[in-house]
Amino acid sequence: MRFVFAIVAFVLAAVMISLGIAQRTIFLEPSTTSLSATVEGSAPYTVIDSSALSTFPGNQTIRITGSDATFLAYGRTADIEAWVGNDAHAVVSAGEDEQLTSTVVEAVVPPATTNDDGSTATPAVETVTDPAGSDLWLEEFSGTSSLTHTVNLPAGISVLVAADGTAPAPADLSISWAADNSTPWAGPLLVGGAALLFVGLVLYVLALLHLRRSRRPRRNLPRGPRLPRLPRLPRVPLPKALKAGDITGSRRPMIAVVPMLLVSGLLLSGCSADFWPGAPQDRASVASTTPTPTPESTDQASTATEVPPAAVTVPQLEGIVSKISTLTADADATLNADSLATRFTGTALEQRLVNYKIRAVDPTVAAPQAVGKPPLSVTLPQQSESWPRVVMAIIQEDDKTVPPTTLILRQESPRANYLVEYMIGLEANAQPPQVAPATIGAPAIAPDSKLLLLPPDQVAAAYADVLLQGDASPSAALFQIEGDEFLAQFVKSRTDRSAELAVTATLAFATAGGSGRTVSLATNDSGAIVAINVNETETVTVVSGEATVNPSGASSKALSGITSSAKGIQNVLSDQLLFYVPAVGSADKITLLGSTQGIISSAELP
After folding, report:
1. Ramachandran region, residue 595 (left: φ > 0; alpha: ψ -120 to 50; beta: rest)
2. Domain 32-114+126-178 class?
């Protein structure tokens, strides 16, 4: 019976091991599911719709070929559609049969508009055609004749494919998804088969030992009747003593050992989680190696149906700020005004360009404060589905002696990049109000909003009057004057300068709202963070015909081009100011959060 049990164990082991191996070989399902499409026509852009990307669950591996240059970027579907606009493009989507279909959308020419005087105005044509480098993309990739990349894109995210924005987009594309081809019973079958094989081997060895013992000579047998004596026969050589190996064959145990070694090797080489029950069945749960957006970082958040989405995500804005930081550092070092103008606008651009002019004459003058690099300590994007869009970001350098910097960025249109409109250093004792999370963003406050203690478009004029008149200003009661270091410094510099010029010249000061736009974003307490521009004008007039005055400082001297004047000098300073304006009815006052000052004009009086 031992041999029977051993044979049964060997047979069951062979069946189980064969089934386990078959599950990982001939019965193994494909590891990916692929769909492909060929785009007809010569459109410069192809949009892979979110529906095509989500045909199957899991990471998407996108491969594009068919042109000398390849470009791929992904972003929110609404942003990609806005960037493509009225240009000719193809749309790849998924049909009901889970196959990719391609549709060509012809270019649309916007209708001409009629001016008030009856003349016809032709709509402006976008001059930017190359999508590479756009601030709208969450991430972008480029290659030569082919490009393959794996991403993990949620619903609401689409992909833009192009060559260079002028040549036809790559025509051949495919999307692959990782499929679940795990075999949870392969491991148990292999292990169970190996165990039965071992049991069968043990039973087989025991059976052999039992058989050997049963064939040995028996001792102490009872004596029977005496037999007659036989005649002596010729002597025959005795056979050698039998061994267990002579009965069973010395190679037979190895027949069982070899499968044991084979199965052990299979088990050691196949200890994957896919071999066992309880392994993750959803390959989509495996994180992609590519940083990709999550639904919370796009307009797919739970509040997307109630409020407009945030203009940017935090990683997207950090990428934008990094590019601005690198470009600005190079422009500051080389005094490259043209390069700077690609990333700055408004008051921030004006102050920096004037500094370039000054340093071109006098290199000893300090450069403007550098734009720091991410991470960002605060990110507050505007809630917006249209343009222009505004974003506020606060950068805290590793060097804590450098005050945090607030950037106000503005994007005029989908194909325009974000430009720095304000760059303001925060005050040492500034306590910014609580703002919404970056995934939600904040609504922009209308310049004439009556829901604040003071409408945003009146803050500049009101604070300019406080600078000039102090407590005597009608607006002084609205502002938190105590602790306002900028106001204190303004008063001190005016007093010192007046005392310096008391005998030879008169000194006149004027303040007014500057040309910079007012930007305001809501805070959690229904107030607003408001960025404004105020200009200070200092006029020095000589009162004695024999006297002269000198420019105040190296910047004024380099900018005006004079060393002394018998008439007088006028300097104009531009102030970038950041305020917290509380809601109407609040007991709080308007508080200065930060300031940056720079000279923008210096000239001799006529």
Report:
1. beta
2. mainly beta
